[in-house]
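Journal club prep — side note

Before the paper discussion, L.F. wants everyone to see what a predicted structure for a comparable chain looks like in C-alpha cell form. Sequence:
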Amino acid sequence: MNDHPVISCLGTSALLFDATGATTLSTQQRIWALSHAVSGWPEIREAVPCLNNLLIFFSDTPPGKVEYLREKLLEEWLKEERLYLDGKVVELRVDYGGEFGPRMEYVCEHTGLSIDEVVELHSAPLYTVFGLGSHPGHCYLEGLDLRLTTPRRKVPILDNPKGSVAIGGSQTSVSASPGPSGWNQIGLTRKAFFDHTASAPALMQPGDKIRFCPEKVIR
C-alpha cells in the first residue's frame, strides 16, 4: 500500500491529494475516509473524491498555512482509516453495437473478441462508482474485465452523445452529457445521469454500483 502521496497546489484555491499507485477499492475507501474527515475542517470549503485522489478547496483564498494543511492531510492519511460505502445499485439498459456503439468493431479488433464476447464480459461485473468528475454527473467506474482493455482514441471526437457507454484504457464509463471524448463507444443507454433541477442533481454517488443490462445487440 502506498503511503507516500503527492500533495500539490492548484493555484491559490485548492490542494490536490494524489494517493498514487494502483487504483484499488481499498485505496479508494481510504480516499473516501479522508474526504469525510477533511470536510469537517474549518480550513476546507469542499472535498471532492475521485480516482486515487482528493481535490480540496480552501475556505479562504489564499489560505494562511498551506504547509500546515499538507502535514495535517498526511497525518490523517497515515491513520489508514477506510470508509465502507454501500450505496444503491442502478441497472442500465444498454443497446450495444451498430449505430449505438460505433467503436465496437475497433474494440473487437484490438481485443480479439467477438461482439457477443465483448457484451458478455462488459455486462457481467457489478461496477463500483469510485468518484465523480470530468463533467456534471459523470462517474468513474471500477470493475472492467481487463480482457476488454482498449486504448483511447488518438484523436478525440467532438460529438459523443449523452448516454454513451464506452471503454477507455482499463475503464468503462457512461457520458452524462454530450461533448468531446477520446473513449471508444460500444453502446448507448437512455438513463439520465444529471438533472440540474433535482434536489440531488447527480444520479450516482461514490459507493453506488452500476450493472449494464444488454437490451439489444447489433452484430
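L.F.'s comment for the group: The domain at 6-77 is CATH 3.30.1360.40 (Gyrase A; domain 2). Keep this in mind when we get to the figures.
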